[in-house]
């Protein structure tokens, strides 16, 4: 703890003198370089940088004795002639082994290692993400104090490798959305907009600020470099003291990769604490790092400056050749060659053991033990915006997303009208005889099935397609689960309601159903309620399924039993007792009875042409199907309960699937 206080006093004294603390020296603060694709990172400058101000809250981030274990479940296998053979001993995989490290304000720390070395796992542990399936032990502290994960979330930023955005938003709209939810709530709207303008200017996003972000693989509007800069822009809006970056140069060309690292270097020179994983950087990029954390086989192979790393390997008779990229050399030495597995692992163990026993490794370990206390700093809430602000902003984004979706607005409207005209013309001008009764009942059933499958197919990917984006934003403390779920529901409901009314209106008058205005309005109301039930069930599948393909695969087998017990394929009085559950959960059953009763109740002008299948009046039609007029209010109530019930289940599954999962220790 004394070491931490000494470091903090040193940092504060440097800030008061107008400089920024770095581990090697104190240097004058530099302006963040504006990214201009016509200039190199070394020559690009900005006269008035307002993004990277001197950090008023410097962070010394440290971790020691971090161990990560993954418990693999026991496997059961069947061998011919041997019956069942069960492995009753679970396998425990030791992923990280006594990993320690520290990053101070003004430092850009690079975590390097070969594939499988544990870089991403360590970064997940440091950011308290994706730890729910792992057992994590060790101490992680800010300024010598162990902190709660929520405290880290509120004071840090995480630029992840995958760029996840809503493709139908523009660059400015994305930054505005982030600013409204992640910046301090006491700031006014004008201050947030001013901050967004500053970020756009400083990161060189001016020319694409009103361009749609686009969807990779389908439609693309901004370039990969612009998307990576947008990722950084979303994180630097809040001027975080601590920043994590996961492979920030992946997918970028050498020039753009150098621009990104130059941006991170400039941020570090402003007093930020920046930790980044990176895989085999170029020589120019390597020279920008202040310190290295080399990892191999889940262990620390070295922690120190770039010059100290070369000296350490030289002392082990592992010399980096002249004019050779040091990062490539380190990766080669710490990789497991497939043809020399045992020799490679022996060399890696030798390097790690020598570092642990070296003066450098022992000194780092003592500093870690001195500066970590058992006090835990907690944060009351990870959310910087109130519930009302969260709801308003998420609703605004969802509304833009729906309005700019051509499938939901234009294509689906044309599809709906075309199908309604086809059904209406097919059943046009039905006569009030036994054939007309059969055809009209079939048309009513088509109304239910069309309202179900069209709407279910539309919404079945609503939540699972954005699950990763939602988890990331929720974990960053931007909005609550109920805010996101409610906004999605409210934005899409008007469109589905209007579509149901349009479809019902077209087929109702083309077929020539009951001409009473009251009966038409009741039919439209039932169609809307059935649509809402179908949408609710689609939401449930979307929240339950891990991916779009799984959700679509579940749609048919889950809705088919509900369709069978609609009363059209089997009389409701013939339903076996043990299968009544499907009938109770089927909106087809309630909707079909409501539509049939609404159509035939009070109808007395039926004519008979074939005596064997003749209906005397509408009451006979209703009774023949096993329905009753007395169930009208009950069926409406059940439809309302299904709408609410399926959506509540969907919300619970969404909530369970996005559990924040605090790390275990």
Structural class by SSE content? alpha/beta
Distance between the termini: 22 Å
Residue-averaged pLDDT, rounded? 80
Which strands sit side by side, in order, in the main sheet?
Answer: 10-13-14-7-15-16
Organism: Homarus americanus (American lobster)
GO molecular function, one term: ABC-type transporter activity
Subcellular location: Membrane
Domain ABC transporter: 80-322
Written description of the protein model:
This protein is an alpha/beta fold. The protein has three domains: 1-14 and 58-161 and 247-384, Rossmann fold; 162-242, no CATH class; 387-657, no CATH class. 51% of the residues lie in helices and 14% in strands. Strand 15 (291-296) and strand 16 form a beta hairpin. It is elongated and about 105 Å long. The chain crosses the membrane at residues 407-427, 495-513, 520-540, 552-572, 632-656. Residues 360-380 are annotated as: Disordered.
Protein traits:
nucleotide-binding; single chain; 665 residues; transmembrane helix; 17 strands; disordered C terminus; ATP hydrolysis activity; alpha/beta; ABC-type transporter activity; 23 helices; 3 domains; disordered N terminus; Rossmann fold; ABC_transporter-like_CS
In short:
Pfam families: ABC2_membrane, ABC2_membrane_7, ABC_tran. The protein has 665 residues and is α/β, with parallel strands linked by helices.
């Amino acid at each position: 703890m004394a070491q931490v206080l000494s470091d903090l006093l040193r940092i504060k004294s440097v800030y008061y003198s107008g400089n920024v603390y770095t581990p090697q020296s104190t240097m004058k603060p530099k302006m963040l370089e504006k990214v201009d694709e016509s200039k190199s990172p070394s020559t690009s400058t900005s006269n008035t940088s307002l993004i990277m101000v001197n950090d008023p809250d410097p962070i010394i981030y440290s971790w020691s004795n971090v161990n990560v274990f993954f418990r693999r479940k026991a496997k059961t296998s069947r061998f011919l002639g041997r019956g069942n053979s069960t492995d009753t001993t679970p396998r425990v995989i030791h992923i990280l082994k006594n990993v320690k490290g520290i990053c101070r304000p003004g430092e850009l720390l690079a975590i390097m290692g070969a594939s499988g070395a544990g870089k991403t796992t360590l970064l997940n542990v440091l950011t308290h993400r994706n730890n729910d399936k792992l057992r994590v032990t060790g101490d992680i502290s800010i300024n010598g104090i162990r902190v709660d994960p929520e405290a880290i979330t509120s004071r840090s930023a995480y630029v992840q490798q995958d760029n996840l955005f809503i493709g139908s938003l523009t660059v400015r709209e994305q930054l505005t959305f982030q600013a409204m939810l992640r910046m301090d709530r006491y700031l006014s709207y004008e201050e947030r907009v001013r901050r967004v303008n500053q970020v756009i200017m400083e990161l060189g996003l001016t020319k694409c600020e009103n361009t749609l972000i686009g969807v990779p693989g389908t439609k693309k509007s901004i370039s990969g470099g612009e998307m990576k800069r947008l990722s950084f822009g979303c994180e630097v809006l809040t001027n975080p003291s601590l920043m994590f970056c996961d492979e920030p140069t992946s997918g970028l060309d050498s020039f753009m990769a150098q621009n990104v690292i130059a941006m991170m270097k400039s941020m570090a020179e402003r007093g930020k604490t920046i930790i980044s994983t990176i895989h085999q950087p170029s020589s120019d990029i390597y020279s920008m790092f202040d310190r290295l954390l080399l990892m191999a086989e889940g262990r620390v192979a070295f922690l120190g400056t770039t010059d100290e790393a070369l000296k350490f390997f030289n002392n082990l008779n592992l010399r980096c050749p002249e004019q050779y990229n040091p990062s490539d050399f380190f990766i080669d030495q710490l990789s497991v060659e497939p043809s020399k597995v045992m020799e490679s692992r022996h060399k890696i163990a030798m390097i790690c053991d020598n570092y642990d026993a070296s003066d450098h490794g022992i000194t780092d370990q003592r500093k870690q033990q001195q500066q970590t206390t058992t006090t835990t700093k907690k944060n009351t809430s990870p959310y910087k915006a109130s519930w009302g602000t969260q709801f308003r902003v998420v609703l605004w984004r969802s509304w833009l997303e729906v309005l700019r979706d051509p499938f939901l607005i234009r294509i689906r409207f044309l599809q709906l009208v075309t199908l309604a005209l086809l059904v209406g013309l097919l059943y046009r001008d039905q006569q009030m005889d036994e054939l007309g009764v059969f055809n009209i009942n079939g048309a009513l059933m088509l109304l239910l099935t069309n309202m179900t499958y069209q709407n279910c197919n539309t919404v079945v990917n609503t939540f699972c397609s954005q699950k990763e984006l939602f988890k990331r934003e929720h974990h960053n403390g931007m909005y609550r689960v109920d805010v996101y779920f409610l906004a999605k529901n409210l934005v899409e409901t008007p469109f589905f309601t209007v579509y149901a009314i349009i479809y019902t209106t077209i087929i109702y008058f083309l077929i020539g159903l009951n001409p009473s205005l009251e009966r038409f309005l009741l039919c439209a109301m039932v169609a809307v309620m059935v649509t809402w039930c179908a949408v609710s069930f689609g939401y449930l599948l979307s929240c339950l399924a891990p991916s779009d393909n799984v959700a679509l695969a579940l749609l048919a087998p889950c809705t088919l039993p509900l369709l069978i017990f609609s009363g059209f394929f089997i009389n409701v009085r013939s339903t076996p007792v043990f299968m009544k559950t499907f009938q109770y959960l089927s909106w087809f059953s309630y909707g079909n009875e409501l539509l049939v009763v609404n159509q035939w109740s009070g109808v007395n002008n039926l004519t008979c042409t074939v005596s064997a299948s003749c209906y005397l009046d509408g009451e006979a039609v209703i009774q023949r199907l096993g329905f009753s007029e007395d169930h009208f209010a009950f069926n409406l109530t059940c439809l309302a309960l299904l709408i609410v019930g399926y959506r509540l289940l969907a919300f619970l599954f969404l909530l369970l699937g996005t559990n924040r999962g605090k790390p275990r220790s």
